[in-house]
Fold this sequence. Notes:
28% strand; single chain; five-stranded antiparallel beta sheet; Peptide Deformylase
Amino acid sequence: MLKIVHAPAPVLRKGVRQVKKIDKKIRELVYDMEETLIVQTDPEGVGLAAPQVGVDLAIFIIKPTPKSHTEVFINPKILEVKKIEDKPKVSSTKQDKEEDEIEGVKLEGCLSVPRFTIPVDRNSEVRVEYLDLNGEKQSKWFTGLKAIIVQHETDHLNGILFTQRVLEQKGRLYEEKNGELEKIS
Length: 185
C-alpha cells in the first residue's frame, strides 16, 4: 500500500511526465494504487492519481463504487466536453441531493485534501483518449459521476487541486466537522 500525499506537497502542484512504456514497474504502481484506493474509508475514495502517491506520471484510476471494476487511465487527454444544463443531476433522491449537492452542484472531496468538501461545477460529459493497462488506445465518453471523477483526476495530472477550481468559480469551501458540513469561505 502507498501513502497518500497531502496538500501542500509540491508533487500535487506540478505537471506529470507521460508514461513511455507500460512495463512491470507501471503495472505494480497501478496495482499498489488500486490497493491504496480500496482501503480508503474516511473518506472513501473513488479515484486516485499518481501524484497523490508521490509519483509524477500521467496515470490515474477510478472506482466509482466499492463494487465497481477499477478503470485505469494512462496518458489521458480530455478531447471533448459537454455541459448539458437540462440534464438531471447525478444525485437522484432528495436525501442524496442534501448529502451530495449544495446549490445544485455536485460536492467533491479529495484524499489529498482531507475533511474538505467543495461544490465544483464540472462538465456533465467528457470524451477521454487514454491507454489502458494493456497499452490499448481507448477513446470513450464518460457521464455522471464518472465524468466528474475523470475531470478531478485529470486536474491532478495538471497540478490543479479542486480547491483551485472552486476559487476560480467563486464558490464556497466547506469543512467536515462532527459529521456536518460547515461553510468556511
